[in-house]
Amino acid sequence: MSTRRVLATLHQNVIPSMSNPAILCDFLTTSYDIGGVISVMALSGLFILMTQHQLEYPKFYDKLYALLTPAVFMAKHRSVFLQLLDACLKSSYLQAYLVASFAKRLSRLTLSVPPAGALIIIALIHNLLRRHPSINFLVHWEVAQDDGVASLPKKIGADPFNNEETDPAKSGAMRSSLWEIDTLRHHYTPAVSRFVASLETDLTVRAKTMEMKITDFSSGSYATVFRDEARRRIKQVPLAFYRSTPTSLFQESDFPGWTFGCQSNMGAQASVEGNAVHTLETVDASPAKRSRV
Fold first, then answer.
1. Per its UniProt record, what InterPro entries does this chain match (predicted)?
2. Cα separation of 269 and 251, whole Å?
């Protein structure tokens, strides 16, 4: 039996029936250190040992941080992984730099993942901002009181966050901001742009909102986004009214001096003009011939 098949059922069929699941710690930690899909599948069993059987794994969050790549949002087991990611970041004892690094890493991924992945990331960041008020500076920079200048990078357009860094402590997220989320306001998928607008409202009125369930977004795909958009009822339907059937894409008055006729019409017009010129030449030459006769 392959390692993937074992890890796929280990947390459901094996660990609950064992009297001492801690003996699996070496197997799970080794699988978790491999990286890629194996690490994603080993996360379920490792999370159970850490939360229910007092397993200590110092580099757990560093490995989890390294797993956040665009490939995860297209993997087969992405639904379980994203739910576990949300559960792993629930603890209020997590340090601010660690949570900020995860939020910034997820924010950067919105620029390269499919629309369904962007929806999940927005939900994850929404939950992180609600659980950890210490990272609210990522969306709202306070103005310094001494000189009245905001604590932003001096060089315009420079982001101090290093996306290639695998160590959250050295990523520079504490000096950055979630500017990627603001760019999603102009996303080509309407569902994403609407969701970003609702995120700002939820963070403004926290008393009337609650955390989002990742299970509602974790199984999303292009098909689900298209289906939801097709089923959505449109309040105002845009209509185009023409008094007569248009014959061209643009009107000639919009572009004076330009012609938008097709090549066949232009060729026919040129042929007609050529025949007209030939006829005139024939008519002009006939009197000369008659005079000679």
1. CCAAT-binding_factor, Noc4
2. 20
Whether the CB-CB separation of 65 and 168 falls below 8 Å is answered with yes
The Cα-based distances of 279 to 108, 287, 292 in angstroms read 72, 14, 21
Asked if the structure places residue 194 within a domain, the reply is yes
Domain containing residue 134: 93-141+150-231
Confidence of residue 143 (pLDDT cuts 50, 70, 90): very low
Query: Is residue 270 in a domain?
Result: no
Distance CA(242)–CA(165), nearest Å, equals 58
Q: Is residue 219 assigned to a domain? A: yes
Establish if 55 belongs to a structural domain. Answer: no
Cα radius of gyration (the chain): 32
Q: How many domains does the chain have?
A: 1
pLDDT in tens, 144-162: 555 544 454 555 567 899 9
